[in-house]
Design a protein that fits this description.
Layout: H1 10-29, H2 45-52, E1 60-76, E2 80-86, E3 92-98, H3 99-102, H4 104-113, E4 119-128, E5 134-145, H5 160-165, H6 167-173, H7 175-197, E6 201-202, E7 208-209, E8 220-224, E9 229-233, H8 238-246, E10 251-259, E11 271-280, H9 284-303, E12 307-309, E13 315-317, E14 323-326, H10 327-335, H11 345-354, H12 364-375, E15 384-390, E16 406-414, E17 417-424, H13 429-444, H14 455-462, E18 468-474, H15 475-483, H16 487-490
Parallel strand pairs: 3-5, 6-10, 14-15
Antiparallel strand pairs: 1-2, 1-4, 2-3, 4-5, 7-9, 8-9, 10-11, 11-18, 12-13, 15-16, 16-17, 17-18
Length: about 500
């Protein structure tokens, strides 16, 4: 038996499937089970490797173990067969099936019935081969799950399309795919630990909402048969988390899914994991301190250092204190023209036209943000908090305490993309209502991202929300910052058409 190649035609796959199904039938006809409910495992492959790594070549341990794994390599000879068994974490061990140990009938069955991709159980003594490879000298074996479709060639790169659509093959064949899943789990566990250390509690808020809000984004719309009403998949948990703060839960966070009916590219996905956190009696400066700590602790948990190594080998330093720069001041410096919240729209349009930027939006603040992205964003190398945004683009944010026309908001840029954002929250219900009314006017003019006027949220604010800081960060983008991968690589099962 030889390794299958990576790009099999449909006809070849169909032919191999037929052969494997026939083998399955043979097992069942002989009274066996191609998919037993369990096998008598005594050790994981990783445990055996940890216990016996470093043995001299041709060594015996006298220890019998029972392990199971997927066959990822196989070589059959006359009286001795070799197979590499791989566990879910990527650990491998060699199984040696010999005539002397299992007998002719069992050896013949191994040769005839076992294919690449099958899960098999083997029992035998842990030894090392003459070449020093840790192995199991099999005295009995059993198929644990018969694979009826062939594996791709594990020595060749899967196409990106295959990796995304058939992630299970990616996980089987590529160590980086498995490591990315593990890195994500470590990062999320670290986030929770850091929050716990600051007295935050984790809560859950609705995915299905009668009104969409909390961000400027186009929602997915669905229908509830039970309530006979139109519902929205949430674009953000913000308005419900703020209700929790009104209710006296002064430090809350949530890690969960958001849905935005927008484009997909290397940094955006219609479905994505989001962290949001709110702290009563905090502001956007305190949320910046917390966010830096969260990200740096996550880097330590994943990489063991604030200096992370990306998938392409590039090192990126997430350590130290991160710069905080003003949007308006940095734009003025980069453009060579003073830009303030009072700069007339005509002047902003003239600046945009000069650098061929099209801004399909009537708000002056949108021009400021687009101009900033053109002039300043490309030059940001280190993690940077971009502070103090235009008031007209941030309807849920408190006005700046000293600067007219801007709000206390920052965006954190890492690796050239926005990783997190935070506000000093707007808690005045009168001003919030005015902002919602302005958003409703934009919606009436056709702005699909504008927020709705949410009376239930306003009612909560009218009961008194303490001064608060709030922060949101994409979990997928956090993994991008730590690993250097694209967003579809950091999501285990990304949405594909």
């Amino acid at each position: 038996m030889t390794d299958e190649t990576t790009e099999l035609t449909e006809a070849e796959v169909s032919e191999q499937k037929a052969v494997r199904l026939a083998k399955r039938a043979r097992i069942l006809d002989a009274g066996g089970d191609a998919y037993p409910v369990g096998v008598p495992i005594t050790h994981s492959i990783g445990e055996v490797r940890a216990r016996f790594e470093g043995l001299e070549p041709d060594a015996s341990t006298g220890v019998t173990v029972g392990v199971a794994g997927r066959v990822v390599h196989s070589r059959n000879t006359g009286k001795l067969c070799f197979a590499a068994l791989q566990s879910g974490d990527g650990s491998r061990i060699q199984a040696m099936v010999s005539l002397a140990e299992v007998g002719q009938e069992s050896l013949d069955e191994w040769k005839e019935l076992v294919d690449l991709g099958d899960h098999v159980f083997v029992e035998g003594e842990a030894i090392t081969s003459r070449r020093g490879e840790l192995s199991i000298m099999v005295n009995r074996w059993q198929i644990a799950s018969k694979a009826v479709l062939p594996l791709p060639n594990l020595h060749s790169e899967l196409s990106e399309e295959t990796r995304v659509r058939q992630r299970y093959l990616d996980l089987i064949s590529r160590e980086q795919a498995r490591n990315t899943v593990i890195a994500r789990a470590k990062a999320v566990a670290s986030l929770r630990d850091t929050f716990a250390g600051h007295g935050y509690i984790e809560v859950e808020t609705p995915m299905l909402q009668t009104m969409h809000g909390g961000a400027a984004a186009r929602p997915f719309i669905t229908h509830s048969n039970a309530f006979d009403t139109e519902l929205y998949l949430r674009i953000a948990p913000e308005l419900f988390l703020k209700r929790a703060v009104v209710g006296g839960l002064e430090r809350v966070f949530e890690i969960n899914r958001n849905f935005r009916n927008e484009g997909a590219d290397s940094t955006h996905s219609p479905e994505f994991a989001m962290l949001e956190a709110y702290q009563a009696y905090g502001d956007y400066h305190q949320m910046a301190d917390l966010t830096q700590e969260l990200i740096q602790n996550a880097a330590l948990a994943v990489a063991g250092s604030h200096i992370v190594t990306w998938a392409d080998g590039t090192e990126y330093d997430l350590g130290g204190d991160w710069a905080r720069l003003s949007m308006y001041e940095s734009l003025s410096e980069a453009a060579g023209v003073e830009v303030t919240p009072q700069t007339p729209m005509a002047e902003l349009k003239k600046m945009a036209d000069a650098v061929e930027i099209e801004v399909p939006h009537p708000l002056p603040g949108k021009y400021v943000e687009e101009l900033w992205e053109h002039y300043v964003k490309p030059g940001l190398e280190r993690p940077t908090f971009v502070m103090d945004f235009p008031v007209d683009t941030s309807p849920l944010v408190r006005a700046h305490r000293t600067k007219q026309g801007v709000v206390e908001k920052w965006d954190l840029y890492v690796r050239g993309f926005e990783l997190a954002t935070a506000y000093s929250e707007l808690v005045d219900p009168v001003i919030q209502r005015e902002r919602f009314v302005e958003q409703a006017k934009l919606a009436a003019k056709g702005d699909l991202e504008a927020m709705q006027l949410d009376e239930e949220f306003l009612r909560a604010l009218e009961h008194g929300m303490p001064p608060s800081g709030g922060m949101g960060m994409g979990i997928d983008r956090l993994l991008m910052a730590i690993t250097g991968l694209g967003i579809r690589e950091t999501i285990l099962f990304p949405l594909v058409k």
